[in-house]
Design goal:
The chain is α+β, with helices and mostly antiparallel strands. Helix content is 46%, strand content 15%. The protein has 41 helices and 27 strands. A hairpin with a 4-residue loop joins strand 16 and strand 17. The chain is elongated, with a radius of gyration of 36 Å.
Length: 1096
Amino acid sequence: MSTFDTEFNEFHTLSVEETAQFLHSDQHKGLDESLAKERLQLYGDNSLGDDTKIDYKAMVIHQICNAMILVLIISMIISFAIHDWITGGVITFVIAVNVVIGIFQEYKASKTMNSLKQLSSPNAHVFRDGGKSNIIPSKDVVPGDIVLVKVGDTVPADIRLFNCNNFETDEALLTGESLPVSKDDKIVYGKNEYTSVGDRLNLAYSSSIVVKGRAHGIVVRTGLNTEIGKIAKSLQGKDDLISRDPSKSWWKNVYITLKQTTGAFLGTTIGTPLHRKLSKLAILLFGVAVIFAIVVMASQSFKVDRGIAIYAICVALSMIPSSLVVVLTITMSVGATVMAARHVIIRKLDSLEALGAVNDICSDKTGTLTQGKMITRRVWIPGFGTIMVDNSNEPFNPTVGDINFIPRVSPQEYKNDDSQDVGILQNFKERYYQNELPQDIDHKLFQKWVHAASLANIANVFQDKETGDWVAHGDPTEIAIQVFATKLDVPRRKLTGEKVPDGSDVVEETLEEDEKEESKELTPISKNNNSPFKHIAEFPFDSTIKRMSAVYESCETEETIVYTKGAFESVIGCCNYWYGNSSNDLLKLTDTDKKFISKNIDTLSQEGLRVLVFATKSYDNNTLSPEDKQKVLKDRPFVEDGLTFIGLIGIYDPPRQETAGAVKKFHQAGINVHMLTGDFPGTAKAIAQEVGILPVNLYHYPKDVVDVMVMTGSQFDDLSDDEIDAMPVLPLVIARCSPQTKVRMIEALHRREKFCAMTGDGVNDSPSLKMANVGIAMGINGSDVAKDASDIVLSDDNFASILNAVEEGRRMSDNIQKFVLQLLAENVAQALYLIIGLAFQDEQSKSVFPLSPVEVLWVIVVTSCFPAMGLGLEKAAPDLMERPPNSSKDGIFTWEIIVDMFSYGLLMAASCMGTFTVIIYGRDNGQLGYECNKRFSDACHYVFRARSGAFATMTWCALILAWEVVDLRRSFFRMQPETDEPVRQFFRDIYGNKFLFWSIMFGFASAFPVVYIPVINDKVFLHKGIGYEWGVAISFTVIFWISCEIYKWGKRLYYKNKSRAENPENDLEKSVSRDPFHAYSSSTTLEASIIIQPKV
């Protein structure tokens, strides 16, 4: 195998050819796949550390070192210390069950999260095996690979650049330089001169961000050998928990270190907010448990024997929901897995619990609310006429659709001028090529436009020879334009002589939106010597100026021609001329002309079309000076100045079929949907009305109200924060939106205490994604930077998947509330029952325990862990998406949960106390015997039987509570009240969650053997077999069940009409309390006219 000096670090002193030779690579063909695999084995993964490796030791420590398990461990040690082997053994079993299940589930969760990381990890575009294009994980990049990087990409490794095209990177992470660095691959630095890392302009560094242009590069260093890797290596082994601040005293650093270490150990400073909150709860409960233990000992005048000590331990344990951490881990793991199946990849566990609290969603339009597969519908060429495309619903197929033509008439005139009968010519393409169009229109105007549309475009459209399907690669907007040009038999390859793709090796052609030209440079393409145009330069699309330009040399006219396309306000500012709407002569472009063009754009926008403008200019090669020739190749302002406006195109991006339904469900769930798009207001408004973000009947609203609903980015940005805060509502649609507008929208929502989600795909979206409570990146079209800044990634770029995410987030939060309520209510019941039970005094004036320590531990094991796991797996409630969003402040501990916890705890404790009291005082005349806490004797006969009844009641009530909390308000017997088959539905409901069903069945059945098995019953559990007492236990269990149903009936009355979400979008056509867009029809919106001034 070819080897090279891995210690060499002076690649900036080598030319591209020398670098390729040094690394035994080829800048045109790349590495062979076999050689790449060998190098991957030799040099390792291109990563800064194996963050996907599972650390089993850390998992064991994580499961043991949490406040809840530590209480059990302390109790176990005390039990063994006082030689209570039975209690100590049972506690050990409880610890083992929790730790083993916890480790297993954390292992599964780690495997799941690692697989999800692979889905959302950055990729690299490499060329191997003779120049074949491949998309591979960045970690598989090896030295010598040829890579392509473009706007929005994260540079996968340190690379020696070549074929740079307006290429700039953000190296702030490495050098601290806040401004982008413009690269120059032609520079070669001297071998004997020192050049700092930041000044090596022919290199791009791993983890830096491409902010402009694109380039190829030869990978020179990977992994920890990169510049950023060297920094990471120097930081390895440092512990962030240890404070070494030189500005603080030694004692202060020790205090901070102890505080941080203790917090990390107990889980109060690490993990998700929910984990931290539960760890703090555990510490609080531990404090309560200690107080209860002291109360137990105080009740015996601190004359503590082994029995009292064990009982005190059990009372303390009754306050600790020991299985909570395990069940939470399972729920999180299942939630992440389910979301992945629903096209939502979780990058940060915090977002799992945050999704349920979202009450505002800000979404992009293109590709998210819409299909992102665009179709050309209108073309207007001033002086020539308007072209219309109908019956074309296949975005990539240029052979379908009808092309008609309206001579000389603009879209605005066609729509608004009824004074003349406009003739529509059918079959434009045939008429054009057969020269059957009206003689008074200049065909050259159309030729100029279609050349601009085809050449200022890097998309590819071709037919796969194997399948016969039409395939397209590139940006959806450019694909739509290229398909239209292909419809008219003027594809770019016909004008430039490029090789025609045949579909047999699609990967070799293009895989990304900006890659055709690059792959063309790597793999020589067949050229037709008679092709009319030769591509000589390109200025790619830049989101800051919203346009792109391509420069070609005409082989027929010996001219250098510039073709530019982009947003209206961007391109029109570069135009000085046009051909007029009724003249074939080149005219000066006046402000009046610009207003006329703008009216036509508004007309097309109102039809929901996205409008792009085309312009051109040409230079005579014979008169072009050498200096100007260089400017044409490199000077963008020079190239894009003094253009001639030649026409525009209207492209339709149809909404996804599921978008309207998703928006409606969001509204039903009390969630506002805002559209923030770069499109024109007319286009944005039309699409927003189509999907339900805006009401269809806008004509019912005053203009000032509509002005609040729909604003432009400049209008919104011109408002001060105070003016925005004074608005009664925030806009539903912001058109011509910039990244800064998105940031201001998030800030405005936060000032209104809204919990918001924001979608984004570009580099410039990362600030708003970071600032949003939940950042949502696009998995297909999203840049690596956007994905890194996000909390979740949509693997299908579909707006409806956000609904899936919110629904799953609510389901998971709902289930966490359920099992937390079940566990804590049971803790309250046990603690109350055991503390109140101290009032029972035997003949020696010592307290008689109403439950033995082992009974308490058994109830904790059987009724806590597995039923709680079942609750964590519970399916979503039928009305889950009709409830208001969860409170982001309260989290799972709402006042409803707190009141329920004490209410159910009191009912359960009362039922158990009723069973014990009835058995002792009803038939057995209150005989409490003596030393019944230690052993069985004839004097303890009735106490042991009463314990059996109370034990059964406690077990069954806790299990019934698990069923009752499946729905916090609906009756357990009518969880689906709208069903026509209530009996069958009841059995379907209880058996639908099989894990919960069998956990409860096992718990119910387990009460019988432990009551009757000899030795185990009277020696271990300190209770005896019973007879009529079963009836007492069952009776009080039924009373508890009925009490729960009555309590929930009272809750339903109290929460009637309170628990439904306020629909933010109310329909004025309905006179009900929750009318769509009610907020926007309020009289308070009248003040908007004072704030929002229309743009001139």
